[in-house]
Specification:
- The protein is of the alpha/beta class.
- The protein has one domain: SGNH hydrolase (Rossmann fold), CATH 3.40.50.1110.
- It contains 9 helices and 7 strands.
- The protein has helices at about 10-20, 30-40, 90-105, 120-125, 130, 155-170, 195-210, 215-220, 240-250; strands at about 60-65, 75-80, 85, 110-115, 140, 175-180, 210-215.
Length: about 260
């Protein structure tokens, strides 16, 4: 079910101009994964099918760990039945896979979307084995700053679970990690201290020397606070389809040779 909402044309222009003139990364690249993308050409010859070594071949694998934004959720269609417009093809996850294929056209990339609407970093930690580690990915993208409130815990607890997720991925897989800060969201009693959580994500990227894409900075720099809801399909925290495009393009800065 596709979203019916799109952001105003003047904000489309602002986002596009901003992406052309600003770097949103911390210039730490997932070098091993980029090398895999450059060199990957797993084509099995017919005579190799009976050779046991062919089972070691695999396509590069990305797992995205996140919430409803990563899951491609948009506006509410029916509040009573909790029906939300959802279209994975309009999510930044699928758009990123397409852009990566454009950049590395000989590489087939397995993109596993392990996002769960309404989830937060504590829930992601609890399901980490099933939804991330079991895939033994080459790259994990974490977008886990929304859906946190006082009744879910303190900022220290948020940081604790975030750090535990990072440590387990580094310890139990060979994956590199990209951390995303979130798009800007409308402040409410159920989701407070977003800026402070964004600062924690930035701190974790620096502490563990992980790639960072600062989507929050882009949203803050481009969108006036009083116009924020015009860039959100649910008027709260879900970007419009074009917003997802800009998130995907921001992530692609990491994979561009000239940055």
């Amino acid at each position: 079910m596709k979203s019916k909402y799109e952001m105003a044309i003047h904000y489309q222009q602002k986002f596009e101009e901003y992406l052309l003139t600003h770097s949103l990364t911390n210039h730490i690249k997932p070098k091993k994964f980029i090398q895999i993308l450059k060199e990957h050409l797993n084509i099995i010859q017919f005579h190799e099918i009976d050779n046991d070594c062919f089972v070691d071949l695999r396509n590069p694998c990305i797992v995205v760990l996140g919430d409803s934004v990563s899951g491609g959720h948009f506006e509410m269609i029916d509040e009573q039945k909790m029906i939300i417009a959802q279209d994975l093809q309009d999510s930044y996850v699928d758009k990123l896979q397409y852009l990566l294929h454009q950049q590395f056209p000989l590489t087939v990339i397995n993109m596993i979307n392990s996002a769960l609407a309404g989830d937060n970093i504590k829930g992601m930690y609890k399901r980490l084995t099933r939804d991330v580690i079991m895939y033994q990915p080459d790259l994990v993208i974490i977008n886990a700053s929304l859906n946190w409130s006082k009744n879910r815990g303190t900022l220290d607890q948020y940081q604790y679970y975030y750090e535990q997720v990072i440590q387990r991925i580094l310890r139990e897989t060979q994956a590199e990690i990209i951390l995303l800060t979130p798009n800007q969201a409308v402040a409410n009693d159920l989701d407070i201290n977003l800026k402070e959580r964004v600062d924690i994500v930035r701190k974790m990227a620096a502490q563990y020397q992980l790639s960072l894409v600062d989507i929050y900075k882009m949203w803050n720099d481009v969108v006036n606070e009083h116009d924020l809801i015009s860039t959100l399909s649910n008027k709260e925290n879900h970007p419009t389809p074009l917003g997802h495009t800009y998130i995907a393009e921001a992530i692609m800065q990491i994979f561009k040779e000239d940055l």
